[in-house]
């Protein structure tokens, strides 16, 4: 496998000069290459059979193997078997296409005109303190020492992610920050040029891009995720490198980078409603130990952060199991409840492990990002209940079935748990690190709760939900206005009108239930009073549902209104 300096998290194995890109060939081809090269070596044949001089797929930079030139670099698999993996170097783009030898250099120069040297140093410090501990995939020592191994694109993203933290610096707080929109556009342009000449630094930059703001660039995030995952696969990050002949630091970096990719793929799938690209049976990189995140635990907070990062990887695996049910086109819904019960038990164990492993000192509080991870955990719980409801709906002959009503109640309580959690957050919590996808989960939580209200027949529950939603909206407005909590932006924009209409309509009685059946057994029940349709009308419901299609997995999860 092409090697690089093991001291640089931005450039791990897989980086090659700009003229060539390393690519992992398929398992069958790798086996053929190994057998053929072993034969040539055993018979002392010096012909360069795989010299890459023709127009074959192996065209690229030749390598030495037992004194013989070969275009392939073979690495044996981590499980100790004879299975091998082979890398080949290939041109990164079409012949004649002009590619930048230093992608992002122009954008970085423009960004440096907006930021003087002391400001850039302070932004690096902010990134190191508030962002890096959660995704430690950049060599901060190399960044601080202006090492040439840190690419221009990576520096662009470090500045971009640190800019929203401007007010946290005593040095910068009294000054006017540069235009954030321009900085975001420069970083995005740098990444697009980097994708044309990709290295592992490109993957690192893509991970940072998906951590950034604004969170509403849904299409761009989906495209970036797809390219990031494809590039990670092509560079073999999905394979366990624990037995490879590479430094321990390089192998640790590969694991960190791969799990960062998995995290964005899974949580992005949940947020955007697109199927995940990564399948759990197509990678063998184990979940990182805390030591892989922070090799030296001289500080208790750093140790807790490493444990927290490891737990987030486990939570991501549980989410991945749920996403198989969400997006499976051949899902047997009668079997889903049993699988969901197993996942619920695993989530219970995960929660218990988090409490046990972190052992939070109440005087110091949990590490930064704990609130975001707890919110993500509750969002996974909500997805479990939504799938229970989907399974009940798929199996029930009549929509008014007791099982379905029970699942609607469970879904409502799960959504209320999230609303209560957000309502209890303090200014300190809002100032923590928050996973960007949390913004989408706020929206889906409110949509689910409003749906449960519309299908409810209980005036007491309507009143309870109404008061909580009003408080929730006030909490988001206060957090955004006073503490700069941009995670609230999308929910306020998309759901404020829905909250207003549904809570106002509840004053006229339970909303109309368009699932009520006129079959035997339901005719003896008095119909619920109709709401004022000037306030809540069918056209508005249809408009609200269609308006959220780009933000919520409404098709795969049937999130808004079931029509059976």
From TrEMBL:
Residues 221-294 form the Xylanolytic transcriptional activator regulatory domain. PANTHER family: GLUCOSE TRANSPORT TRANSCRIPTION REGULATOR RGT1-RELATED-RELATED (PTHR31668), ZN(II)2CYS6 TRANSCRIPTION FACTOR (EUROFUNG) (PTHR31668:SF10). This is Putative transcriptional regulatory protein. Coiled coil: none annotated. GO terms for molecular function: DNA binding; zinc ion binding. GO terms for biological process: DNA-templated transcription; nitrogen catabolite activation of transcription from RNA polymerase II promoter. The keyword Nucleus applies. Keywords: Nucleus. GO terms for cellular component: nucleus.
């Amino acid at each position: 496998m092409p090697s690089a300096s093991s001291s640089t998290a931005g450039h791990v194995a897989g980086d090659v000069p700009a003229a060539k890109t390393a690519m992992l060939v398929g398992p069958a081809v790798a086996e053929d290459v190994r057998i053929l090269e072993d034969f040539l070596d055993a018979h002392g044949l010096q012909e360069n059979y795989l010299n890459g001089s023709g127009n074959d797929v192996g065209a690229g930079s030749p390598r030495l193997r037992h004194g013989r030139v070969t275009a392939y670099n073979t690495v044996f698999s981590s499980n100790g078997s004879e299975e091998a993996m082979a890398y080949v170097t290939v041109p990164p783009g079409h012949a004649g296409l002009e590619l930048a030898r230093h992608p992002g250099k122009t954008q970085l120069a423009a960004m440096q005109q907006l930021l003087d040297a002391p400001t850039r140093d302070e932004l690096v410090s902010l990134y190191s303190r508030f962002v890096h501990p959660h995704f430690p995939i950049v060599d901060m020592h190399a960044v601080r020492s202006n090492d040439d191994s840190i690419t221009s694109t990576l520096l662009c993203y470090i500045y971009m992610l640190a800019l929203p933290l401007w007010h946290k610096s005593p040095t910068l707080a009294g000054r006017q920050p540069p235009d954030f929109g321009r900085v975001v556009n420069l970083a995005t342009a740098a990444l697009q040029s980097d994708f044309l000449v990709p290295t592992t630094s490109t993957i690192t930059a893509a991970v940072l891009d998906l951590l950034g703001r604004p969170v509403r660039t849904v299409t761009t995030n989906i495209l970036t995720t797809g390219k990031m995952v494809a590039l990670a696969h092509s560079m073999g990050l999905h394979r366990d490198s624990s037995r490879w002949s590479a430094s321990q630091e390089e192998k640790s970096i590969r694991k960190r980078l791969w799990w960062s990719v998995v995290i964005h793929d899974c949580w992005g799938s949940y947020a955007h409603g697109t199927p995940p690209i990564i399948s759990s049976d197509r990678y063998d990189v184990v979940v990182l130990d805390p030591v892989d995140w922070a090799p030296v635990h001289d500080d208790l907070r750093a140790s807790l952060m490493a444990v927290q990062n490891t737990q987030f990887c486990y939570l991501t695996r549980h989410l991945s199991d749920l996403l198989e049910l969400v997006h499976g086109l051949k899902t047997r819904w009668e079997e889903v409840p049993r699988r969901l019960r197993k996942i619920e038990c695993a989530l219970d164990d995960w929660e218990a492990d988090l409490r046990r492993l972190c052992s939070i000192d109440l005087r110091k509080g949990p590490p930064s990002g704990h609130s975001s991870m707890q919110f993500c955990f509750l969002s996974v719980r909500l997805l479990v209940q939504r799938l229970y409801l989907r399974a009940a709906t798929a199996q029930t002959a009549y929509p008014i079935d007791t099982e379905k009503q029970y699942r609607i109640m469970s879904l409502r309580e799960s959504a209320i748990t999230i609303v209560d959690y957000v309502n209890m957050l303090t200014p300190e919590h809002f100032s923590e690190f928050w996973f960007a996808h949390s913004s989408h989960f706020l929206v889906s939580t409110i949509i689910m709760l409003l749906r449960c209200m519309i299908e409810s027949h209980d005036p007491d529950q309507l009143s309870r939900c109404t008061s909580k939603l009003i408080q929730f909206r006030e909490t988001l407005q206060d957090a955004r206005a006073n503490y700069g909590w941009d995670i609230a932006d999308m929910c306020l924009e998309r759901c404020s009108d829905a909250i207003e209409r549904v809570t106002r309509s509840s004053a006229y009685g339970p909303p109309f239930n368009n699932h009520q059946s006129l079959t035997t057994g339901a005719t003896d029940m008095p119909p619920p009073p109709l709401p004022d349709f000037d306030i809540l009308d069918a056209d508005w419901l249809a408009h609200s549902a269609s308006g959220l299609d780009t933000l919520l997995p409404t098709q795969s999860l049937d999130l808004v209104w079931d029509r059976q």
